[in-house]
Amino acid sequence: MLVLGSGYIAAFVFFRTHSEDFVARQIDARALDYACANRLSPPAELRFASGSADLALLGTGWNQADTDGLWSRDADASLMLCAPAGRDLLLDLRLHSFVARRHPAVDVTLLANGTMLGQWRTRVGQNRIDEQVRIPATLIGDGRIKLTFRVDTPASPRVMRTGPDMRRLGIFVSQLKILPAPER
Predict the structure, then answer these.
(1) Which helix (H) or strand (E) holds 37?
(2) Is CATH 2.60.120.260 what the domain over 40-180 is classified as, yes or no?
(3) pLDDT per residue over 69-118, tens digit each?
(4) What's the pTM value of the predicted model, to 2 decimals?
(5) How wide is the angle at C-alpha 164 spanned by C-alphas 158 and 165, nearest 5°?
(6) Which residues touch 42 (CB under 8 Å, ≥6 apart)?
C-alpha cells in the first residue's frame, strides 16, 4: 500500500510539473492566429473597450471588456501581436493597477516572448504606469510577439471591502500604441 501511495504521489507531482493548460494554449493560439491574419503596421493604436475588434488579440487572463477598457484577471494576462520582423518597436503603455488601503501595492512585470522588458511597483496614489518600452528586434524574431502582463496580486474590490466589484482586478488597459523605435 505504501508503494502504491508513493507511486500515486510521484505521478501526481510529475503531472503537475510537466502539464500545460490546453484551454489556455488554445485561447492564446486563436489570438495569435488573429494577430497574424491582421499584422500590425506601426504606428498602430490598439483599443480594448467592449466591441473593439482588437479584443481578439487577447489571450488568457483577462476579464470581460468594459465600455472604456478591460482589467486583467489572472497573475498572467497575454496579448498577441504580429509585427514586421527585423526592427525594434516601442510599446507605449498607459495602464493603472488596482490598489486600495487593504491592497496597497502591486508589482507589474511586462514580458515579450518570455523576456522581461520592464517592471514597476504601483501603490495607492501612484497606481499609473505611463511608459514607453522598447521591444528589441531580436525578441520579435519572425514577427510573432506574446506580451505577458504579470501582476503579482490581482484582487477583488469586494474581498478588499473597497467596492462591489467581485472580479479579480490586476491592471486596467484601454489602449496600447505600437510605434517604430528610433534608431540607436
Answers:
(1) helix 22-37
(2) yes
(3) 999 999 999 999 999 888 999 999 999 999 999 999 999 999 999 999 99
(4) 0.87
(5) 75
(6) 83, 84, 89, 178, 179, 180
